[in-house]
TrEMBL record:
This is alkanesulfonate monooxygenase. GO terms for molecular function: alkanesulfonate monooxygenase activity. InterPro entries: Alkanesulphonate_mOase_FMN-dep (IPR019911), Luciferase-like_dom (IPR011251), Luciferase-like_sf (IPR036661), SsuD_RutA_monooxygenase (IPR050172). Residues 10-331 form the Luciferase-like domain.
């Protein structure tokens, strides 16, 4: 079976630090609101997405707590939740993970976030250099994984000391929930090759993604392992290419040059992330050359940290671009769009049919087989045209 024959695993994003219709503006913005996150989660659960990524950071709601709330209100949705080594012990994180997997009936995915901001890490009590953070994470997840898989672990390491650690209750998933990870530095790729199940890249041009995929494959193979691959992207999908590009322009239409300069200055000062540097290099803070690869638009990265690119176009165009990533080895997409509730509908309704995904789950019949045309919601219902048989 060719890589493009198998449908993508398609997740959405919970914007737990806030949402809006325009980047760099408070017009039509949506502040942090747990009720709104529930709306998004229940919508994407019904619309056919397999799961959601819940971000982590000082500006975000705590991911484990938010995932527990959303798990109680959804049926099939999986939750990709961050584990940040150094912010708590591996034994404590193992208890959190096991309980969340149990209360969600096996719907937990784990996202390793080592951290790319020395300033934020210092606030969490983590004072390690860039490469040392991965040495620390390696010891952390040895204990964490052993606890989830066997219920016990002991390690007298350089960074982690766990003597006769115990986990009383196992997770639902066996041997444990899968580990996801994203990182572009040599230290990150060496770490993940021996540890994770799925490697995530931000949305770089296909040639750059292919280069990273090959590096991770070699790292994993050297340790006798195999790793699968996912990509984190924003989406601007409309019925035509022109409409999609108009929507992209509108998204940054209220973004000032001063706001871009301020954001780029913060990125340069606060982050030692190689992945963040690669995102910035796609646009270098300039808004005049934002299509960095066919239909790959870097406008979001002018002010957003982390994933800063979007696929822009009609359903057929975006599906073609996704197939290029699938040919490289990408089998999972973690998607988002602004605002997240409306764009979740657009991506499901417009793009999913083009990429072989089923769309809304558990739809109830709305007729006895007649073809219907939406009639505006009047008392007489829809217009029945002819038999659908």
């Amino acid at each position: 079976m060719a890589a493009t024959d198998k449908p993508l695993d398609f997740l959405w994003f919970i914007p737990s630090s806030g949402d809006g219709a325009y980047l760099g503006s408070d017009d039509l913005s949506r502040p942090v609101d747990p009720g709104y996150f529930r709306e998004i989660a229940t919508a994407v659960d019904r619309l056919g997405y397999s799961g959601v990524l819940i971000p982590t950071g000082v500006a975000c709601e705590e991911s484990f707590v938010l995932a527990a709330d959303l798990a109680a209100r959804t049926e099939q949705l999986k939750f990709l939740v961050a584990v940040r080594p150094g912010t708590a012990s591996p034994a404590y994180y193992a208890r959190l993970a096991s309980t969340l997997d149990r209360v969600s009936n096996g719907r937990l995915l784990l996202n390793i976030v080592v951290g790319g901001s020395a300033q934020e890490l210092a606030g969490d009590g983590v004072f390690l250099g860039h490469d040392e953070r991965y040495d620390h994470a390696d010891e952390f997840f040895k204990v964490f994984n052993e606890l989830l898989e066997t219920g016990k672990s002991t390690l007298d390491g350089k960074f982690i000391k766990a003597i006769d650690a115990r986990l009383g209750l196992p997770p639902v998933q066996q041997p444990r929930p899968p580990l996801y990870f994203g990182g572009s530095s040599d230290a990150a790729i060496d770490f993940c090759g021996g540890m994770i199940e799925k490697y995530l890249t931000w949305g770089e041009p296909p040639a750059q993604v292919a280069e990273k995929v090959e590096r991770v494959r070699k790292s994993a193979a050297a340790k006798g392992r195999e790793v699968s691959f996912g990509i984190r992207l924003h989406f601007i999908v409309r019925e035509t290419d022109d409409e999609a590009w108009e929507a992209a322009d509108r998204l940054i239409s209220k973004l000032s040059d001063e706001a871009i300069e301020a954001a780029q200055a913060v990125f340069a000062k606060a982050s030692d992330s190689v992945g963040q540097a690669r995102m910035v290099a796609l646009h270098n803070g300039r808004r005049d050359k934002l299509e960095v690869s066919p239909n790959l638009w870097a406008g979001i990265g002018l002010v957003r940290t982390g994933a800063g690119t979007a696929l822009v176009g009609s359903p057929k165009t975006v599906a073609a671009r996704l197939r290029e990533y699938q040919e490289i080895g990408i089998d999972t997409v973690i998607a988002s769009g602004y605002p997240h509730l409306e764009e979740a509908y657009r991506v499901s309704e417009l793009l999913f049919p083009e990429i072989g995904l089923g769309g809304p789950r558990n739809q109830i019949r709305s007729s006895f087989g007649e073809r219907q045309v939406f009639g505006g919601g009047g008392h007489g219902g829809n217009v029945k045209l002819a038999s659908a048989s």
